[in-house]
Amino acid sequence: MLRRHSLLLLGLGGGGLWLAWPSIAPLLSTLHSGRSGSSPQPMQVISVFVEDPERTVMALALWKDRPGSLLVLQGRPSSQAVNIQQLMNRRKWPSDEGRIVRLEPGCDTVGQVDALARLLEPMRRRGNLTMITSPAHLERTLAIARIVIGPMGWTVSGQAAVTGDNRPESRWRTLRDQARAHLLRLTGLTGSRPDSTCD
After folding, report:
1. I need a surface site. Which of 2, 131, 135, 158 has the fewest CB within 10 A?
2. Is residue 1 part of a domain?
3. How many domains does the chain have?
């Protein structure tokens, strides 16, 4: 009986640690980089969902304020093309695209965050990830990213760009997508599909 209780407590403790790891890993990463005095500056990554060009305008301004940062434009090829063309027409597109990445996989927020995680995974230097989307979409995006990307040692934060549609999202969508994100972590499956397979 005692052994069964010990195994149960061990299982509960392990499960609790697994669920808490998305919050713990960035803290450990920060402590480790702070301890080694000669370590390089944390990597700065800015990611934006490009369905509304106002989001990209905000992301570009932040990118220019953080020299050396990487800007990741996320969205389907059609959305990327429209977004870039609109910004070029408004003369807001930068002439130097050297630290800009266009990331196209992912049919929804979970898939796009998963695609971003796969882009960041090979990077040896971890740091800060800032996600930019609309105010209504931000809470859900951060909830997913902290589950999928946080355990890799990235500190995830966000900024809201006021766009055309700012209607609040249902809390159930956030809970549903958090469950999907945990399932991705648990199984190692991918949530990002090529654009051609999106409905």
Report:
1. 2
2. no
3. 1
Domain carrying residue 45: 41-197
Query: 118: which 2 tokens?
Result: 């796969």
pTM of the model: 0.77
Give whole-number Cα distances, 33 to 26, 27, 70, 96, 125, in Å.
Answer: 11, 10, 20, 30, 10
Query: What CATH number has the domain bearing residue 119?
Result: 3.40.50
Measure CA 90 to chain center: 27
Report the C-alpha gap between 121 and 180 in whole angstroms.
19
Q: Cα separation of 106 and 149, whole Å?
A: 15
Cβ 11 vs Cβ 4: under 8 Å: no
In angstroms, rounded to a whole number, what is the distance separating the alpha carbons of residues 23 and 26?
6
Average pLDDT along the chain, 199 residues, taken 10 residues at a time? 58 54 53 54 92 90 93 93 90 87 90 94 91 92 94 93 78 88 79 55
Alpha helices in the chain (DSSP H): 2-35, 53-65, 77-89, 109-120, 135-148, 171-187
